[in-house]
Amino acid sequence: MNNSRLVKISKYLSLVLRHHPEKIGIKLDSHGWVAIEELLEAAKNHNFPIIQTELYTVVEKNDKKRFSLDSTETFIRANQGHSVEVDLQLKPQIPPDTLYHGTVIHVIDSIKKTGLQKISRHHVHLSNDITTARNVAKRRKGKSIVLVVDAMAMSEDGYKFYLSHNNVWLVDEVPTKYLQILST
Ligand code: HQG
């Protein structure tokens, strides 16, 4: 399968498994899972046919490991990034001392006022390293900027951190006092 097909399927799966399952008439269970058979049938009926081997290839090869299969390999879900209500059953974990958040300069004034907020997702998403944060920022229009998060201080102050199956750190919010702009 060529890369553009891989990306196209990944985007489609992100849309229906994170945000709009109802668009193709599927229902995620409370933990975000849907039967692969049901998903493929619904996709076919909505003019986006995917063959089963393509789906498995996307799960395996996806650049960010966005999707997981259950142990029976008959159910699939997105690992993070949902806007629909799902319980991913992640357990709180102690974060590394420092985490990073990539964003764009024109939202900095707002972030300085209210800290990092989850906006439409379940959590604020934080990266382990600066390169990943820069890549997150690059998805947006405008000058990229990386914020340094004092995750250890937050954790000591009682904020709960979760690590998604694809290594994205998740937290409810990051108040301004734990944020610094990375000097380039
Ligand atoms: C910004 C992608 C104004 C925040 C990525 C971000 C990531 C504020 C945007 C994952 C704000 C939300 C998540 C405030 C936060 N005022 N703007 N107080 N607080 N923001 O897409 O972190 O490819 O929901 O900086 O790689 O950009 O989808 O979050 O710019 O891992 O798998 O509000 O999505 O992964 O945007 O990205 P998003 P994000 P996938």
What is this structure, in a nutshell?
With 184 residues, the protein is an alpha+beta fold.
Kindly provide the name of the CATH class of the largest domain. Answer: Alpha Beta
What percent of the residues sit in helical stretches (DSSP H or I)?
A: 25-40%
Catalogue the ligands: ligand HQG
Q: Approximately what portion of the residues adopt beta-strand conformation?
A: 15-25%
Major beta sheet, strand line-up: 1-3-2
The geometry reads as globular
Tally of separate domains: 2
What distance lies between the first and last C-alpha atoms, to the nearest angstrom? 38 Å
Query: Which structural class should the secondary elements be placed in?
Result: alpha+beta
Q: Fill in the CATH topology of the largest domain.
A: ADP-ribosylation fold
Can you tell me about this structure?
The protein folds into 2 domains: 3-78, RNA 2'-phosphotransferase, Tpt1/KptA family, N-terminal domain (Arc Repressor Mutant, subunit A); 92-183, ADP-ribosylation fold. The model has no long low-confidence stretch (mean pLDDT 96). Helix 1 (3-19) crosses helix 3. It contains 6 helices and 9 strands; from the N terminus they run H-E-H-H-E-E-E-H-E-H-E-H-E-E-E. 24% of the residues are buried. Helices cover 32% and strands 18% of the residues. The strands form 3 sheets. The protein has a 3-stranded antiparallel β-sheet with strand order 1-3-2. A 3-stranded antiparallel β-sheet has the order 4-6-9. The site of ligand HQG has 18 residues, from helix 4.
Pick out its properties:
alpha+beta, 2 domains, binds ligand HQG, ADP-ribosylation fold, three-stranded antiparallel sheet, Arc Repressor Mutant, subunit A, 9 strands, 184 residues
